[in-house]
Write a structure and sequence with these properties.
Keywords: Signal. The chain has helices spanning about 5-20, 25-30, 35-45, 55-60, 75-80, 115-130, 160-170; strands at about 85-90, 95-100, 105-110, 135-145, 145-155, 175-180, 190-195. With about 200 residues, the chain is of the alpha+beta class. Helix 1 (about 5-20) packs across helix 6 (about 115-130) and helix 3 packs across helix 6.
Amino acid sequence: MNILHKATTVGLLAASLVLAAAPRPAEAAESSDSVEVATRTFLLGCVAYVGDYTRLRDNLRPGREMFLPELSPAQARPFLQGREGSAWARPDAGVTLALLKADDTCIVFVRKVATDGLYRRLEGDLRASLGKSFSVRAAGEESKGPMRSRFIDLAPTGSYRDDLIRLYKTEPAGMRVILTTSETANPDLQAIITLGARSP
């Protein structure tokens, strides 16, 4: 069974955990704090729907629980960088969620934010939302010029890990959250949050 399919299974559990622990989108919408909006958008969008971004697209439509205004193709272009996909934004908070079709990737962009505060909040929210079934741990960082990437690994634990091993007959890979930040590389973009599979 490939890693992406395993990630789908991880996502199904993550959806129930995140949605149970996180405030409803309407609650988050009352605040335009970039840190809060970015972490909640990432948790309620990218993490909760990993492996089922078609359903997330549906829930981003008007009148749905995750509604965000969709950007026009011209407005979405800087976030998609020539790839096929769509983007939705909370302009008041400077937060944009993009879904890329080719590799089914979910990305959250943050225009202006205290990057260290965003990292602390993101790690804390991941622990609070997923800590019962995942080990959430800092997994190092890398720097390239003005860009800094910090990694947070999500590894299934306890009975959930045992269930995955029974299902797939192998150690589950888990997921890796990557927060890439820069104070100077682009004055209109200070943080990017992504989610992908990690090696076991």
